[in-house]
């Protein structure tokens, strides 16, 4: 379950989210056999980032696009961020982060592993394809819309005994590294077929 603690300061919530994200990176890198040295991103020269960080950037772009669709579909304000604030799409960033451990990072790390087998294929293309495939399979936009609606449902906080009740915001899926690895196997087969026919069966993804 994903929980919100109503009385926790925002800085505490951000610290909890940061710690959870670091653990997610560590666990998934071990599961998928990708060396991980920490999250690094240079906006001026993103191409100089190491492959795992580059892949996360590409996967994040695809998931962010889906989050912006969900925010627009629900008529919520994209600037209304909770964890993120200093952005015109802060709320979309918050929504996208809900799928970091189930879509963004597994697909990014799996694409790094896949690109080792196909060095002639750009990492960006592989990462976007795998992310698009996972989002279709998991119906991510629909789930994002449901999570947004759930968030803004009116809820009563019980304060029996002077303590605030923790409010569940729906179940968080477990990290699915196996599905990401399975996608890599299917991608390998599809790419082999495409190479033999001279066509690209998957397209460029989002």
Keywords:
206 residues; mainly alpha; two-stranded antiparallel sheet; 7 helices; 59% helix; 2% strand; disordered C terminus
Give a verbal description of the structure.
- This protein is mainly α and 206 residues long.
- 59% of the residues lie in helices and 2% in strands.
SSE string, helices as H and strands as E: EHHHHHHEH
How would the global form be characterised? Answer: globular
What spatial order of strands do you see in the largest sheet? 1-2
Largest sheet: 2 strands, antiparallel
Q: What structural category characterises the helix and strand content?
A: mainly alpha
Mean pLDDT across the residues is 79
- Secondary structure tally: strands: 2
Low-confidence sequence ranges: 154-159, 164-175, 193-206
| Total helical segments | 7
Share in helix = 55-70%
Distance between the termini: 30 Å
Indicate the radius of gyration in whole angstroms. 18 Å
Compose a concise summary of this entry.
The chain has 206 residues and is mainly alpha-helical.
SSE blueprint:
Elements: E1 3-4, H1 10-32, H2 51-74, H3 90-97, H4 100-117, H5 123-138, H6 140-151, E2 167-168, H7 177-197
Helix pairs in contact: 1-4, 2-3, 2-4, 2-5, 2-6, 4-5, 4-7
